[in-house]
């Protein structure tokens, strides 16, 4: 029903992914496979809903009525078998801003915040820019599959200055979907030491290859009372340009504390089209997402086979979720600077520098595969051609 092979021209749209290539790579002549949005058209149902609202001549202040929270409640039940209530939900202008509000609400300057590294770069700034201490719980790389170091987590959580654990679930960039057993271990440790879990679950709808995302708050009543979940349809339906994020908290005390910070900063109003886009995506985008998921799985398998046949020294753990792959380039023997320069200047492919996710990312690059397959093939062929020239 949906054409994910269609090449859509994005120039002229002020796209971050395209228009900042010169700034980040030193050239705009490269295939952009970095910023985590998709090169696919949003679901037609979402487009139609936006067009319908845009057809009205007035774009004044708007509120979010019951259809906004009803759509979220229905979606969490449908997609995650997680039964939440309307009054557990609060709008947020974005997942990262919501994490900032929560850091401000539930910790003080100098307090420690745990993150699993390598991790999405804003996790560092959310903590450090607000005068909190980054506590790195480095993931254990077990033959490409990353796992949590629970002994280290226990030690870190036991420190009286540690107040929060920012959980990336599913994990960006390593692509893990945490199992119920893993989540229960996190909850046991954090509850024991009075550490609040902030669960960034923005990629939760993009579980792949029969993996199943489990919302952290759904694993037990204790977990629900000791956590806040951060979700959005933005990654799922390629509508990141709208402010469609929200938080879910079963604990009314936590939700009210979050609201106070967001309201104090006057960031509670939201975007005119945010409710329109979210409601249409969740209520009408289910078939589109099924086809998208199958296409993304096909893209990942395509990259696997291409590397196996043409660049067998490169490897990546097949992601259990997200449209991001974490490629290991260590066998090339290049420094990180040389790797960055090779990709940008020789291969003309824009990938995310692994070190931007933490020093544990040295030797890695992150590739966004949410593009038409022909785009991926073009980028991969350019890497092979550039590597061949380099080795001649």
Describe the 3D structure.
The chain has 15 helices and 15 strands. Helices cover 42% and strands 16% of the residues. The strands form four sheets. A seven-stranded mixed sheet has the order 2-10-9-8-7-3-4, with helices on both faces. A four-stranded antiparallel sheet has the order 11-12-15-14, covered by helices on one side. It has helices spanning 16-19, 21-25, 44-54, 66-80, 95-106, 122-128, 150-158, 180-192, 221-225, 234-237, 252-264, 274-284, 286-310, 336-347, 373-391, and strands at residues 31-32, 89-92, 112-117, 133-138, 140-142, 145-147, 162-168, 196-200, 227-231, 245-248, 315-316, 324-328, 349-350, 352-353, 364-368. Helix 3 runs antiparallel to helix 12 (274-284). It folds into two domains: 16-43 and 286-387, Aspartate Aminotransferase, domain 1 (Alpha-Beta Complex), CATH 3.90.1150.10; 58-284, Type I PLP-dependent aspartate aminotransferase-like (Major domain) (Aspartate Aminotransferase, domain 2, 3-Layer(aba) Sandwich). It is of the alpha/beta class. The chain is globular, with a radius of gyration of 21 Å. The termini are far apart.
| Total tally of structural domains | 2
- What is the fold-level CATH name, i.e. the topology of the largest domain? Aspartate Aminotransferase, domain 2
Instruction: Provide a count of the helices.
Output: 15
Structural class: alpha/beta
Q: By CATH's scheme, which homologous superfamily of the largest domain applies?
A: Type I PLP-dependent aspartate aminotransferase-like (Major domain)
Principal-axes shape call: globular
């Amino acid at each position: 029903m949906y054409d994910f092979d269609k090449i859509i021209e994005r120039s002229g749209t002020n796209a971050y992914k395209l228009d900042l290539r010169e700034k980040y790579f030193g050239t705009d002549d490269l295939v952009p496979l970095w910023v985590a949005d998709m090169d696919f058209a949003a679901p037609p149902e979402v487009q139609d809903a936006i067009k319908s609202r845009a057809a009205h001549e007035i774009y004044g202040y708007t509120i979010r009525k019951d259809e906004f929270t009803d759509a979220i409640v229905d979606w969490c039940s449908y997609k995650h078998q997680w039964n939440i209530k309307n009054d557990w939900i609060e709008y947020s202008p974005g997942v990262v801003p919501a994490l900032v509000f929560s850091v401000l609400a539930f910790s003080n300057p100098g307090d420690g915040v745990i993150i699993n590294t390598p991790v999405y770069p804003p996790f560092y700034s959310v903590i450090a820019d607000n005068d909190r201490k980054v506590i790195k719980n480095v993931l254990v790389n077990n033959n490409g599959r990353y796992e949590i170091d629970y002994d280290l987590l226990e030690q870190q959580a036991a420190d009286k200055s540690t107040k929060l654990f920012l959980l990336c679930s599913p994990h960006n960039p390593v692509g893990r979907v945490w199992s119920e057993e893993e989540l229960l271990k996190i909850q046991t440790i954090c509850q024991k030491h009075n550490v609040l879990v902030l669960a960034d679950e923005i990629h939760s709808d993009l579980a792949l290859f029969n993996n199943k995302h489990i919302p952290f708050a759904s694993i037990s009543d204790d977990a629900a009372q000791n956590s806040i979940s951060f979700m959005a349809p933005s990654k799922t339906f390629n509508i990141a340009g709208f402010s469609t994020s929200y938080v879910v908290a079963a604990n009314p005390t936590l939700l009210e504390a979050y609201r106070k910070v967001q309201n104090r900063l006057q960031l509670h109003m939201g975007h005119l089209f945010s409710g329109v886009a979210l409601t249409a995506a969740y209520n009408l985008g289910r078939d589109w997402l099924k086809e998208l998921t199958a296409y993304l799985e096909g893209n990942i398998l395509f990259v696997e086979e291409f590397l196996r046949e043409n660049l067998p020294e490169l490897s990546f753990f097949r992601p259990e979720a997200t449209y991001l792959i974490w490629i290991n380039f260590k066998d090339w023997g290049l420094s990180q600077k040389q790797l960055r320069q090779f990709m940008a200047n020789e291969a003309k492919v824009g990938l995310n520098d692994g070190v931007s996710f933490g020093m544990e990312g040295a030797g890695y690059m992150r590739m966004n595969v949410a593009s038409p397959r022909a785009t991926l093939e073009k980028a991969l062929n350019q890497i092979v051609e550039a590597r061949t020239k380099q080795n001649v």
